[in-house]
Every structure is written in C-alpha cells, then in structure tokens.
Amino acid sequence: MPGSLKGIERFFEGGGDGQALPVKLSALFSSYGYKKYRMSRFEEYSLYAQNFDFLAGSNVITFGGADGKLLALRPDVTLSIAKNTKASLERGEKLYYHESVYRQAHGNLGYEEIDQMGVEHIGRVDLLTIAEQVELILRSLRLLSDDYALDISHSGLVHGMVSELKLDQRAKAEVYDCIKKKSVHAFAELMKKEGVSDVSAAKVRRLIELSGPIDEALAELGTLISGEEAAEAYVQLTALSHEVGRMGEGGRLRLDFSVFNHLDYYNGVIFNGFIKEYPKAVIVGGQYDKLLQKLGKNAQALGFAVNLGAATSGHKRALDAAIVYDESDGVFEVLDAAQKLREKGKSVYVGTTPPQESALKTYVFREGELEEKK
C-alpha cells in the first residue's frame, strides 16, 4: 500500500485491488437517496422454508438457536428486508446494504461466504422508479469495468404472451422452462404434444429466439405482441430503451427473455448485468411485488444485488514493484526508494527474496540506486 495520503489516493484511483469498490458503490447509492441498512446475520429458518423458490434453489445452512428455534445463516438479503420493512404504497423507503450471504458449496462440502451489495426500493414503483434504477445499474457496472452490458427482460410480457396459448399450469411451467433455456426444439415438441397450432405458437417461439441490442429487438418484438399485459410491458421496455439512449448507453442494454425469475415472486422487469472480466452475471435483480404481497405488505418493490467477489475479479491489480535488497544495502536508503514509488500510487514489496506473486517490475538495490532487473 502507498504510504502517503496522495499516494493512497492515486493507488485507489488506479483500482486499489478492488478495495475501493464498496466505497464507490456506497457513494453512488447514497447519491440516489438510498440509506444504509444493517441486519442480523441470522434469520429464522421458516422465512426461507416458506419462500424457497425465491432463493432459486440455494441451499440454506441451518443450526439450532439457544431458544430451540431453527435458525439459518442468511442466504439472501432481499427476503430479510422485505420481511422487516415498514414501507407502504403511501410512504416508501430506499435502502442499500453491504452484507455477506452464506450458501452451501457445490457438493454440500462446507459453505461459501459471498460479499454482496445492493439496493431495494420499496413503496410505489412506476416507470420513473424503474428508469432510475436502470440508470443506477449502468453506473454501477461502469465502476466495475470499461466493458459491460445489461440484459433486461420483463416477466409481464412473457406471462402475457404465454397466456395467449391457453395452456394449463403444468404446460405453462414447461414453456417458461423452454424460454429460460432458449430451447426452441423442446418448445416445438411441447406445442405438438399439447395440440397447439404452429400459427398460435409462432410468436412465443420467436420470443425464445429473440435477443440483442434493445432498439433492434424491440422493433421486431412490436410485431409479435398480443394481449393487454404484454402490450403494457412493451410500452415500459420502449420507454426504458429511450432513457438509456438518452444516457448515451444505448449499446449497453440488451433484450433477452431467457433472463427469467419465478413468476410467483417477480412481476415486471428483470436484470442481469455483465462485465468482460467475469463469465456470469455480477448484478441480478428485478421487480418483485408478489413477494411483498406474499409477506402481507401493501407495497411494491424493485432492487438489485452486486456480487462483489465476482465484480472485483477485474480489479485485482498485479503488484507494481518488488525491491530485492541484501544486508549490504542501507536500510534507510531502501525504505526511501520504496516510498518514492508509493508516492506515485504504486504497490511496493520490499524483501531479501522476490515475492511469490510476480511483480510488474522487479528492482535490485545497487550503490544506493534502484536498478530494474530484466
């Protein structure tokens, strides 16, 4: 780490090995009126057992409390906030958090701790609310990487289009699975089994295939829309496309209906944010009014979460410099040389042997001067 205030500032301006990201995100969220929210690490297991589908299959780590109640290490933050919120349609709240969530590792071998930040807007959600949050997500992604994109979908549009097929609940669930997996073949087989004509199924089949920059995708999507629910969602997506274009970020927003969450909880827009440095979504979220209704709350809700561990994968800075010295070198001369590099915002290792981590530049100390080792 750099040793002076100016050196530290330069270090963090250069990425700071990802350490500055939570500070920057906190400042960004606060600038949009979100207030810091803190919560307990534990919740009663019953909250998660009753809403297991919302957790998208995450295993919950449980243990017995001193009072005999079954407790759980928190696998999700949104559920805890939704359970405890006092917000309503008449008086909303905007919260942000920086918390850890805990999930069983693959193969049930121990658990993993995931460092997470996010925002929740609970109260009344309208087009302005959604547009502002899309703007906030894009600005968050900009802090994570120079190369980023936001995939957006709308559960109302998908639900409306699928409802036009007049299927029972079991068959609808299979259609949703086809959309999520982008499986046109499985969808065609299902329609054949259910006796749905090719003409009736054609629009949903194209919905499965359709993805790309939102302006281009919306132009075709407009020819497929049928039903009031889907039409309302289309108007909303068109307005969001306009807002993102106004920001100069039109090329960052993509329409992809495989971005899909459980319809018992989600009812509107759904987000997946990506950066070049990580293969999976680093930001996930959407509108989840139905969860609030299920918890007996008279409010709507919209939010997203940032996986900080994944997000900082692009911020891991290599060690800038390593200074290797021996006993014949002057102690204070070596320290002064290291400090001069730190004043420039460099991270500097000093030792009698090279570090295990490779450095961008390695120096040896000769006759009171640094000499780069090639």
Produce a short descriptive summary.
The chain is an alpha+beta fold. The protein contains 14 helices and 16 strands.
Estimate what percentage of residues fall within beta strands.
15-25%
Shape: globular
The helix/strand class is alpha+beta
User: What ranges have pLDDT less than 50 throughout 5 or more consecutive residues?
Assistant: 1-14
Q: Tell me which CATH architecture of the largest domain applies here.
A: 2-Layer Sandwich
Helix % is: 25-40%
- CATH class category label of the largest domain: Alpha Beta
| Mean of all residue-level pLDDT scores | 86
Per the CATH scheme, the topology name of the largest domain is BirA Bifunctional Protein, domain 2
**Helical stretch count?**
14
Number of strands: 16
What is the chain-wise order of helices and strands? HHEEHEEHEEHEHHHHEHHEEEHEHEHEEE
Task: Tally the structural domains.
Answer: 2
- Evaluate the radius of gyration: 25 Å
Calculate the terminal CA-CA distance, rounded to whole Å. Answer: 24 Å
Organism: Candidatus Caccalectryoclostridium excrementigallinarum
InterPro entries: aa-tRNA-synth_II/BPL/LPL, HisRS-like_core, HisRS/HisZ
Domain Class II Histidinyl-tRNA synthetase (HisRS)-like catalytic core: 24-308
Protein name: ATP phosphoribosyltransferase regulatory subunit
Characterize the structure shown:
The chain is α+β, with helices and mostly antiparallel strands and 374 residues long. The chain has 2 domains: 5-10 and 318-372; 32-314, 2-Layer Sandwich (BirA Bifunctional Protein, domain 2). Helices cover 39% and strands 25% of the residues. The protein contains 14 helices and 16 strands. The protein has helices at residues 5-13, 21-31, 45-49, 78-84, 127-144, 155-163, 169-181, 184-194, 198-209, 214-221, 228-246, 289-294, 308-311, 331-342, and strands at 35-36, 42-44, 62-64, 70-73, 93-104, 111-123, 148-154, 211-213, 253-256, 269-275, 283-287, 300-307, 319-324, 348-351, 359-366, 369-372. It has a 9-stranded mixed beta sheet with strand order 1-5-6-12-11-10-7-9-8, sandwiched between helices. Strands 14-13-15-16 form a 4-stranded mixed beta sheet, with helices on one face. It has a 3-stranded antiparallel beta sheet with strand order 2-4-3. The longest helix is centred in the middle third of the chain and has 19 residues, at 228-246. It is globular and about 85 Å long. The two termini are 24 Å apart. The relative contact order is 0.15. The model is unreliable at 1-14 (pLDDT under 50).
